[in-house]
Write a structure and sequence with these properties.
Blueprint: H1 13-47, H2 49-58, H3 63-88, H4 103-121, H5 125-155, H6 158-161, H7 169-174
Helix pairs in contact: 1-5, 2-4, 3-4
């Protein structure tokens, strides 16, 4: 079997539009696959985030500091329970103080609380990625539309030239930018 080329291959406008449509479909399928596979994995990781963060912090502590860290975390949990119960009973405020035996342990717990607080305040990563995927899908559609319009105007240049719209340079300059 042999293949012979006899000259330059001319791609028809229909074939170019079909290729543009195939590229669009491939991109949308990739977006769907990310939504189907990556986002559930991220949600599972988010569920274990506090364990992973705590393990990361604990790995930097000595065995004695680890014991103090665990005891101090129990005190923090108790303080949060006292505050929650006071709020539930309408007392408004509750006082609970924790004295850390070691400055390193205090810093480790402060770091853990600050990290977890900031992560809880942030939008879940899956929701953020879904919004980004939506923007990407819309952008991909706009590119598709622009490429198809270019192909149509390339084939039918008279549709641009026969337009009834006329603009002066001054009208274009006066047009408000958004």
């Amino acid at each position: 079997m042999s293949i012979e080329f006899t000259g330059p291959v001319k791609i028809t406008p229909e074939a170019r539009i079909q290729n543009i449509a195939k590229e669009y479909v491939a991109q949308i399928l990739s977006i769907i696959e990310i939504n189907r596979s990556v986002i559930p994995e991220m949600a599972a990781q988010d569920d274990n985030e506090h364990f992973r963060l705590s393990a990361q912090i604990v790995s930097r502590l000595s065995p004695t500091e680890r014991d103090d860290y665990a005891a101090s975390l129990r005190e923090v949990a108790e303080g949060l329970r006292v505050a929650a119960n006071a709020a539930k009973e309408g007392e408004g405020t509750a006082k609970h103080s924790i004295n850390f035996k070691d400055r390193t342990v205090g810093s480790a717990i402060t770091h853990y609380i600050m990290e977890m607080s900031s992560r809880k305040l942030a939008e879940p990563r899956g929701a953020l990625l879904r919004k980004s995927l939506l923007v990407s899908a819309i952008s991909t559609f706009e590119v598709l539309f622009g490429q198809i319009a270019r192909e149509i105007y390339t084939v039918n240049t008279s549709s641009l030239n026969d337009s009834e719209y006329r603009f002066t340079l001054q009208e274009l300059a006066d047009f408000p930018a958004r």
